[in-house]
């Protein structure tokens, strides 16, 4: 049996009484139940989106679905195992540590709990937005990220298709953001659940009424917005970087409403890759070490 994580056994009995003690006690409870909460919601959203895709698909898939799903979900299993092995503390645990040690911005501010949760979750989402832009801007980072874009189809499992090296680097960035901000563990848990859930939603191959999509994209990134980001056209896949909140793309000039060819005629993926090989697990793992192709280097440029 694996030894318990060092932060999970930390006692809070010596913490001062009053609100700070209650906050630490709640954070400890969240930390102890984080895995169950996240796994339950993950499986629920995955199953719900899979059923929605069967009932109302937006596009006809070009590749063998079971084969693609085996590769994309295989990456999830590998990333989860490596994450547990490489990182003895994850984002929620880091937030709990920051609370215990009175470290980070939100531990120095006296904000109401609801406001801290809302602002912290938004700032973490903004961090992910800029991280995403950097992974398109810097060639070395694009090598890691292009595996996600090399999927020739677009459905809920595309949301989970990330190279292990990219996942590890993203975790380091997230841990750094948590250390600087010092958000409540509850805020980090809500952010993580929303990030994962909305990513599966907005990568869904699902049909949404245009009127509903028009209003919904004011609050959250929709599948129509995200699909544009997976176009083979550089001007389109270098847009709509937001994962959860749609405001950052509008604020920083990276928003694109629709693909030029429309959602039915647009091509998904990267122009230099295609076919069943893109779903092969080994191919996905070695892709970052292959040369960047001249046709599509994923480098963000001025949209003009």
Notable features of this structure?
304 residues, mainly alpha, 14 helices, globular, disordered N terminus
Structure, explained:
The model is unreliable at 1-19 (pLDDT under 50). This protein has helices at residues 19-55, 65-86, 91-100, 105-108, 113-137, 139-149, 164-181, 185-202, 210-216, 223-229, 234-237, 247-251, 262-265, 281-286. The protein has one domain (19-289). The chain is 59% helix and 0% strand. The relative contact order is 0.15. It starts with 18 loop residues before the first helix and ends in an 18-residue tail after the last helix. It is an all-alpha fold and 304 residues long.
Task: Indicate the topology.
Blueprint: H1 19-55, H2 65-86, H3 91-100, H4 105-108, H5 113-137, H6 139-149, H7 164-181, H8 185-202, H9 210-216, H10 223-229, H11 234-237, H12 247-251, H13 262-265, H14 281-286
Helix pairs in contact: 1-3, 1-8, 3-7, 3-8, 5-6, 5-7, 5-8
Helix proportion range: 55-70%
Query: Counting H and I runs of at least 4 residues, what is the number of helices?
Result: 14
Query: Rg, please?
Result: 20 Å
Largest sheet: none
Structural class from helices and strands? Answer: mainly alpha
Written as H for each helix and E for each strand, in order along the chain, the element string is HHHHHHHHHHHHHH
Q: State the low-pLDDT regions, or none.
A: 1-19
Number of domains: 1
């Amino acid at each position: 049996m694996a030894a318990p994580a060092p932060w999970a056994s930390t006692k809070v009995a010596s913490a001062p009484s009053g609100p700070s003690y209650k906050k630490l006690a709640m954070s400890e409870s969240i930390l102890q139940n984080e895995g169950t909460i996240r796994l339950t919601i993950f499986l629920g959203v995955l199953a719900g989106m899979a059923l929605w895709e069967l009932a109302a698909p937006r596009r006809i898939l070009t590749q063998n679905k079971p084969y693609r799903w085996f590769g994309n979900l295989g990456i999830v299993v590998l990333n989860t195992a490596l994450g547990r092995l490489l990182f003895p503390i994850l984002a929620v645990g880091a937030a709990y540590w920051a609370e215990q040690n009175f470290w980070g911005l939100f531990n120095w501010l006296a904000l109401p709990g609801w406001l801290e949760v809302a602002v912290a979750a938004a700032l973490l989402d903004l961090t992910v937005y800029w991280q995403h832009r950097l992974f398109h801007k810097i060639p070395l980072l694009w090598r890691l990220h292009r595996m996600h874009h090399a999927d020739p189809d677009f459905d809920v499992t595309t949301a989970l298709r990330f190279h292990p090296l990219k996942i590890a680097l993203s975790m380091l960035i997230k841990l750094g953001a948590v250390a600087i901000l010092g958000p409540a563990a509850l805020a980090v848990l809500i952010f993580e659940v929303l990030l994962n859930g909305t990513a599966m939603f907005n990568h869904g191959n699902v049909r949404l009424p245009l009127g509903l999509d028009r209003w919904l994209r004011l609050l959250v990134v929709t599948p129509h917005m995200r699909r544009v980001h997976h176009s083979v056209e550089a001007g389109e896949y270098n847009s709509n970087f937001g994962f959860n909140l749609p405001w950052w793309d509008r604020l920083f000039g990276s928003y694109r409403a629709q693909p030029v060819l429309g959602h039915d005629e647009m091509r998904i993926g990267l122009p230099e890759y295609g076919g069943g090989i893109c779903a092969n697990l080994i191919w996905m793992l070695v892709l970052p070490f292959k040369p960047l192709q001249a046709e599509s280097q994923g480098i963000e440029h001025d949209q003009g």
